[in-house]
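Data deposition worksheet. Section B asks for the primary sequence of the deposited chain exactly as it was used as input, without tags or linkers unless they were present during the calculation. Section C holds the resulting structure in token form. Section D is free text for depositor observations; keep each observation to a single sentence. Incomplete worksheets are returned to the depositor.
Section A, Depositor: J.P.
Section B:
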Amino acid sequence: MMQPFRFIHCGDLHLGAPFQYVMGMSRTVDRTVAESTYVAFQRIVDMAVRERVQAFIISGDVYNSEDHNLEAQVRFVRAMYQLQEARIPVYMVQGNHDPAESWRAQLDMPSNVHVFTHAQVQRFPLMVNNIEIGGVYGISCGHGNEHTNFAVQYKAFERDEFSIAVMHGTVGSSQDADVHNVTGPCNVSDMIQGAMDYWALGHIHKSQVLGNDPMIVYAGNPQGLHRKECGSKGCYMVKVSHNGHCELEFVETSAIRFEEIKLDITGIQKESELLEVLSIKKNILRKQYKKPILLSVQLIGTGPMHALAMDEGVRNLWLKSLQDEEKSKSVFVMPYKIIDKTRPSVNLGERRLLSDMVGDYLRAYDSAVTDVSTVRQILLDRPEAKRLGAYADLLTDELLLRVMERSEMEGVTMLMGAHDEH
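Section C:
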């Protein structure tokens, strides 16, 4: 029987990643944001030392970009020395944000750190109590976004009792992957052929288990980097039993949590009521998560507050008021954005049937704007579209849907007048 052991699987550290759009709200926020990626990673390192794991796996993107700053390098190397003192070996691949060609030689890694080459899949012995029980296999990204299918190159040795594959790449057509940032594309079927027991994946910033035989796991990132990365962020503690069965425990590590809430304005009559409800929701989040939160607020529904909610200047005043409440709090729930998705009290179906300017507008809208692809083509047919260049990729379906909804409602609102809600 194989000796049971434990290892940590983490990735996409993005040490030193900037959160520029949430800076400047308060000194406490700025300090917490600046330290967040480092704090999250240090929590993983401390846990590894405390729990005396037998291996520490990093599945790519230690740094945020090819020109990673020196502070990030120093902090990372110090953490590696901390793991060396605890006699914990580290196995890591380089990802598309920190490919092999971008690493510098200013700082030497300790001998416990095994960095996989980008030339071919490489194997390091997996040691438990000074006995080799298997191997850790990996290949690094060499030149940023790779188009090579790395997975088909992995093949476990027959003598391995347990084999771990470390890879930075895109499995299948994951909805969480940026289609313009696909790297090392492969499928689950490619991975099964490698006869590995555990695939430690990086690149997708969402923890998820894609398969159980073998285990195919994205650890996600230890710290959310922007508003789309809401919820729990962390790493996996993996316990391997004597028969090779893996038990996964997700451990949250983020220093700051991104959250988004929706507030229905229906029934809210006064501005003071709206701000009071938002303050209550902030305190609920504070008690629930007990850690600093960066908050995006989406206003929905219909009612008397619609006219105020749709005014950007008013929303900015609300935002400042809510931020001022948090400036003296160490465990802050700091709103950084208020989005208006409220609607005037109007039955669009009925208004489409009326012979007035609003009805004419809605019928004209329906004939011109039928679906997302139509709107996209209208934009791309414009001469100005040629100047967009690579920015044309930012015209996502989600963005165009928001534009369609807003153009429909804003046209109706303007033609009806701010006080004509029927």
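Section D:
Residues 418-422 have pLDDT under 50 and may be disordered.
The chain has three domains: 5-252, 256-343, 349-422.
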